[in-house]
TrEMBL record:
InterPro entries membership: FAD-dep_Monooxygenase_BioMet, FAD/NAD-bd_sf
Regions that span the bilayer: none
Signal sequence extent: 1-23
Region ranges (Disordered): 27-51
Gene Ontology MF terms in the entry: monooxygenase activity
Protein name: Uncharacterized protein
Tree of life domain: Bacteria
UniProt keyword terms in alphabetical order: Monooxygenase, Oxidoreductase, Signal
Amino acid sequence: MQRVIVIGASLAGLLAAAGISDAGGANRPVTVLDRDPTPVDGTARPGVPQGRQPHVLLRRGLLALQELLPDLRPALLARGAVPLDTGDLAWRDVTGWALHGEPAHEILSLTRPLLEAVVAEQVGALPGVTIRRGAAVTDLRRVGRSWQIRLDDGSTLTADVVVDASGRSSRLPQWLAGMGVGPADETVVDARLGYSCRLYAGGPDPRELAGVVVLSDPTLPKGGIGLPVENGGWIIAATGTGDCRPPRDEAEFDAYLTGLRDPALADLAASCTGGGPVAVHRQTANRRRAYDQVPHWPAGLLPVGDAMCAFNPVYGQGITVAALQATTLRREWPARMDPAATRKLLSRLTSTTALPWAMAVGEDLRFPTTPGSQGLVQQLTGAWAREVGRLGVHGDRRATRALTTTYHLMGSPLAMLDPRLVLRAGLDLVGVRGAPNPRPAVLETLVEPAHAPAG
């Protein structure tokens, strides 16, 4: 039976192990190696610098997780994860407020450490899966038809298949160079986005306020998000690009929230009973390595997750893509991992990144802090998506559904080309336009009515 080693116990690595272990019902032995020690409950791992930031698990990602680990959702709920309907989010973009209270997609809101802890528990309990902590990989070599993995303690392991899930810091390009393979073409699109976030105690009841999103855009490159998490808390993040990246100082963080295009997040922070220290994260570039195009790709080597394609985390796509790749491994794992089968599977793993990459990069290229510019197709696609968003802000439910379905990767972007939306946009051009959606009334409960903005 194939011996499989996964490098990295990130969510991408853990989920890949879950998918591989029972592909074809084989109960295949899989060893997951991670350089970090066993994490302390509720704390982010050193190898996950973004672990303290908020994470949005898109609806498609939640479904993929449940396919891989059927008991995951009830376990997360039992540990305090907050179920919410994305239609109940107070969502503000440059043109106005999205429809509020319109049923959309259920997701779970929780911190990254809680999600990783429960996933690790369930993956570690799978037949044949072993998770080794404190085992850093220093070298990877092809020896005959097998892989030799050297660890930092000088020991070596042998495997038939190696999955690289070591994230943005992956050393696979260097290891491939040592084998005389590659290099892979690399594309980087960096909007110079920065995150700052605080974990707050107390706050409003999530059944009344599901969360707040204030989007940035090139005209005001400051935004933020606030979501309920376990233990009755809220996590609030501020985002910004270039010189507008949010600060580390707690007082400056609060002031930054008041400078957004709506004070809803500042009001949310003020309604909580206390905030923790500010956590900052700035490794946010989109980075894609075209491993599927490398000639003479070695058999039994598969990069996944951020080691293959990393996204600007503001769009919440990384965990979902990792989960989709893991379900691909489960469904398409070959009986024999020869060069042809490896390349076919690598191509399928790459294809899961295509739409999220196009969405993230197309949007980031609009910002003046991003080197490069949009192509004509990106300009036209982006302009139409913004027009559909504006229709939603003016009460069009069909436009709202098309946008949320695409954003949560639950359907094709072609839904935004519905002829009825094209007709609606045409009517707007001649002045037949619906009234803008009001500011969600629930936000008025966060502050005194006299301090709430109009519209």
